[in-house]
Amino acid sequence: MNHRIQQISNKWKTYSCAVIGTAMLFSCTLDQNIPSGSTQAPVDFVNPYMGNISHLLVPTYPTVHLPNSMLRVYPERGDFTGDRLNGLPIVVTNHRERSAFNLTPFQGDEKEIKATMPLSYDREKIKPYRYKVYLDDLNTAVDFAPSHQSAIYNISFEKDAPMRYLIFNSRNGELKAENNSVSGFQFVDGKTKIYLYAETDITPNKAGTITNNAIDYKNNSAKGENAAIALAFSGEKKEIALRYGISYISIEQAKKNLNREINSFDVETIAESGREIWNDALGKIQVEGGTSNDKTVFYTSLYRCLERPINLSEDGHYYSAFDGQIHEDNGSPFYTDDWLWDTYRATHPLRILLDSQKETEIIRSFLLMAEQMGTGWMPTFPETTGDTRRMNSNHGVATVIDAYKKGLTGFDLEKAYIACKKGIEEKTLIPWSAAPAGWLDEFYKEHGYIPALHPGEKETVPNVSVWEKRQPIAVTLGTSYDQWCLSQIALALDKKDEAQYYLRCSYNYRNVFNPETRFFHPKDKDGQFIPNVDYRYDGGLGARDYYDENNGYVYRWDVQHNIADLITLIGGNDAFCSALDDMFNTPLGMSKWQFYSTLPDHTGNVGMYSMANEPSLHIPYLYNYAGKPWLTQKRIRTLLNQWFRNDVMGVPGDEDGGGMSAFVVFSQMGFYPVTPGMPSYNIGSPVFENVKLQLPNGKIFEIRANNASAENKYIQSAKLNGKAWDQPWFSHEAIANGGILELEMGAVANKAWGAATPPPSAEPMP
Q1: pTM of the entire structure?
Q2: Which residues, 6+ apart, have CB-to-CB distance to 582 below 8 Å?
Q3: Cβ within 8 Å of residue 190, ≥6 positions away
Q4: How do the domains of the chain map onto residue ranges?
Q5: How many helices (H) and strands (E) does the chain have?
Q6: Which of 21, 25, 394, 742 could be joined to 719 by an S-S link, Cβ 3.0–4.6 Å?
Q7: How many CA atoms are closer than 13 Å to the CA of 738, on its beta-carbon side?
Q8: Cα 46 from Cα 427, distance rounded (Å)
Q9: 477-486: per-residue pLDDT in tens?
Q10: How many CB atoms lie within 10 A of CB 381?
Q11: Does domain 3-21+71-282 have CATH number 2.70.98.10?
């Protein structure tokens, strides 16, 4: 057991006394694969298969990794329902991408060997820290466990054969065999490489390259497309262990990463270490009550929030695709692979509560990216290959101000303000574009909205994607929110004039509000609303001519920073609640196949509401702002029960690495951050009778939901830190140093509780 594993083991001994030793805390049994009567740790409730069959688009993946670690894998297959693996995985470079490199064990006729071969499989078992599978055609058992930048395979060949083989493939790169090692690289894109150093516990009898589906034993190095190396072992060797390291810096660094983390060929030791690390991370939130399936949904969702972003630092250095250089990290790890359009909403706020130091390091990484890109622009979609600028808006600004207002000060706020401001002012607002600002941006600055095209009108603005379009309502609303966030940073820096300017800009959503329909409505460059828009269907594929992935019913509520003003625009509390009800109860109006052929991201439907897409996540909490918190309580429980389940179809749509799962974690605990940048939380309906959240300062924030059950979902009364509490929200300050939110739950709504004290909204326009 190496030094790192011993450290983790010692830490776990202390942790297990506090968490696992509390037998009642995790004492109910999981419905699948857990023996009845056993005591479980948090990781035992994680079901990586939850959501692996998609409702329409992208499923979840049963990812095996350690929290926020560089090395991630999942089975190499086209679909969960398929019965073939395309080899064994080595490392996934970006979220939801296929593995770089590839490993294929083989025993049989050497003439059948190819660079990649489909593998029939059975008896697959996946835990966050371990992957086991049986290759039934080959009678070969596989056992895998990861560390942070390295991993180990144990491969057991069960049938007699004259030779055994391990085949390594670099889909586009170079590989070389030498003694008992294989090393090389693969291009991730045109400039970014990932490096591999692997070694077996026994030296192969011979090695060679695979060319034209034959092994050339005279050559031990291969390069190009599907560069492949085969290691051949004597048939008497029925068990072969393989350990490897990966790096974005060099082969030598990959070897260092391996030797630092793994110094044996014992998969059991690495798996146990991984299990302890996962329990440490997941155990920061302890839940009691609810059903076994409730706990599985909860801890599986929390596990998905801990995949990204990934830590790229290797022995104090990291490769940055943002400038193609290797840098020193100066003691602060460098993180990337974070889709901010998704994760700013709840994943980042959750991390502030669980690991504020890591959140600080992530924001520092964003600021380094802005410098390294040369533009000074805050990133929006940072990946291992750089900033891909996907989706719309510039929500990195929300992560900055949310962290700062919740007490995180370990980053340069002035630098953050400049980067965020440049990203909004100097970069174009055109979706999926990294071009400098142009005509559309100048129009927005002058008129306060992005103009829409009439049906059939030809696009004339360069850089507007034929596929993604202008998305004028989505961009106008998203930028209004970003500018509110910018105003809050300016205020914190005592830039009063700029704070007032951006606060005025944050009301730009009013410019596309149609007072007749009370929806946000596309408007042309002449200031006229596009006529005859059907908010259910119009806007082309994904509604991108007007909105983005979601229809006008969803974007009706996309004013996260100023719900109070939105209530006024819609006509007051009663009209606002009626409009919410109308969204949840308006039918598709056509067959599902017709609806989804136009709006394929708009799944998880409850009427016109889409549980499957991120702009919807805050919507069920909006009744809190309009005097009917009991309807938020009812709706949250209904949505959780309908769409998040412990089965392979238990996630309603794209789960973008924590973007949606953080909604589940917060909502099952009983609160949610509707407005990142505003240090407050909306109260919903806790699923569990007791939740203990270990804050970074060592204090505990506890939620006691007395009598909570599937039936008892309504709050009858509340106390916060011992004082009667009659409002459906609380401040971050109230829980920052620990505290107790105590709720009395019942089966019949108390419609008066919290009705008169709505959560805060943006300041009035100056």
Answers
A1: 0.95
A2: 607
A3: none
A4: 3-21+71-282, 287-746
A5: 18, 37
A6: 742
A7: 7
A8: 41
A9: 999 999 999 9
A10: 20
A11: yes
